[in-house]
Amino acid sequence: MAKLNNFEMIIGSNSYRPIMIGGMGVNISTAALALGAAKLGGVGHISDAMSPFLNDMLFGTRYQANKQKETRAQEKIDPKYISRWTEDIVYRANRDYVASVMAHKKGEGGIFVNVMEKLTMGAPSETLQARLRGALDGGIDGITLSAGLHNASLRLIEDHPRFRDAHIGVIISSLRALKIFLRGASRVNRLPSYIVVEGPLAGGHLGFGEDWHRFSLNLIVEEVISYLRSEDLNIPVIPAGGVFTGTDAVNFINMGAAGVQVATRFTISQECGLPTEAKQIYLRAEEKDVEVNCSSPTGYPMRMLKSSPSLGSNLKPSCASLGYMLDREGNCSYKDLYEKTPVDAQGKKLPIYEKMCICQHFMRLQCYTCGHNVYRLKDTTIMLPDGSFYLPPMEHIFKDYLNSEDQSVELPVGNTDQSPQQASNG
């Protein structure tokens, strides 16, 4: 049987290894992880989720502190003041973050950025436009539009000089969603450079309802490929969600896919931004520890570990300094629920299970999103003498995908002595 290494993924005029690493926010898909993929000839994603916070953390800016100060000052004048992110800050945050990553790029691969439409920031279309333009001006190779239908997103940047130069793709979970996006794309005469078809076993936000278990990635991919052929559209299709081995990937390529997008296996890599303790929790997980819930204020179902600290929390919303999920009226489903939640005898808010403060928990890396196959991660590495698991470098995982045969997974060998510092390069 052919290995994944025998194929190439063609996007526009570029030829890549047929592996795309998904853009996990906030800084879970680190620059190091994305740069590693590009150096090996594949495509690595960064995420622009909460980019002002990310700039503060990485570069010492004070976007959030300044926003909080300004918001509180305005609230004294107008108690109904709505905390919004301004376009200029969002633009600068995305541009500077992307530029810093691109300045370190080596190899023939690509660096793409994942851009969530559902990240509303108090001014949905204005901040989305600023994020897209910032990424393009920062020199990004490609933009992947996610978490939404994006039927108007392309119009926000159609006058940008790089609109037809950069790769622009979209994540969809149904043929219906693809048709909606293509109608919007036809209005600006700009077809997507690639289509990521994300199935129901993916991690994080899902493009399905609570009946997600009724759907199959294979069937959706077949449907999308068949439709594109019937319309004579030559757009690369990239399946995602549950692609655990190189053999899984080859099976999709044999169906007509151009490559695959993967993420869960890289959550335990040394380059991933998750804390070492969280990576060990992922490695100890069993299938029964995974759930799909509706705790995200985006309105999308979300797959995560049941032990995620974000579940049952009662954090007070910090919309003045954060506010990444506020709509134009200043509403967020968690914020609204928090205000209605009663307190206990000590005056503390009772635990909230229906929704979570996604801004704070993403900022603190306390939302353990994962793909369905997270429970199989323990089979991809070795246990150390102290009972913890070895965290492999991303290069080992990448090459294992390329060389896998008959569903095999190659365990790390050689120097697997690992100090806590070596175990977490994120």
Structure, described:
It is a single chain. The chain has an 8-stranded parallel sheet with strand order 10-8-7-6-5-4-3-11. Helix 2 crosses helix 4 (87-102) and helix 4 runs parallel beside helix 5. The chain has one domain (4-275, 379-423): Aldolase class I (TIM Barrel), CATH 3.20.20. The protein contains 13 helices and 13 strands. The model is unreliable at 420-426 (pLDDT under 50). The protein starts with 8 loop residues before the first strand and ends with a helix. It is globular. With 426 residues, it is an alpha/beta fold. The longest helix is centred in the first third of the chain and has 16 residues, at 87-102.
Write the layout of secondary structure elements.
Blueprint lengths: L8 E3 L2 E3 L2 E3 L9 H9 L3 E5 L3 H9 L3 H15 L9 H16 L7 E7 L7 H14 L4 E5 L20 E6 L2 H13 L6 E5 L5 E2 L11 H14 L6 E4 L5 H10 L4 E3 L13 H9 L5 E4 L8 E4 L27 H8 L17 H6 L30 H10 L16 H4 L3
Parallel strand pairs: 3-4, 3-11, 4-5, 5-6, 6-7, 7-8, 8-10
Antiparallel strand pairs: 1-2, 9-13, 12-13
Helix pairs in contact: 2-4, 4-5
Short description:
The protein has 426 residues and is an alpha/beta fold. It contains 13 helices and 13 strands.
Q: Which fold name corresponds to the CATH topology?
A: TIM Barrel
State the CATH superfamily name: Aldolase class I
Gross CATH architecture: Alpha-Beta Barrel
**What is the level 1 CATH name?**
Alpha Beta
Number of helices: 13
Our estimate of the beta-strand percent is: 5-15%
> Given the C-alpha coordinates, what overall shape results?
globular
Record the strand order, biggest sheet: 10-8-7-6-5-4-3-11
Helical fraction: 25-40%
Q: What's the Cα radius of gyration?
A: 21 Å
Write the H/E string, N to C: EEEHEHHHEHEEHEEHEHEHEEHHHH
* Biggest sheet descriptor: 8 strands, parallel
Mean pLDDT: 95
In the predicted model, the low-confidence regions spanning at least 5 consecutive residues are: 420-426
User: By helix and strand content, what is the structural category?
Assistant: alpha/beta
Number of strands: 13
Distance between the termini: 36 Å
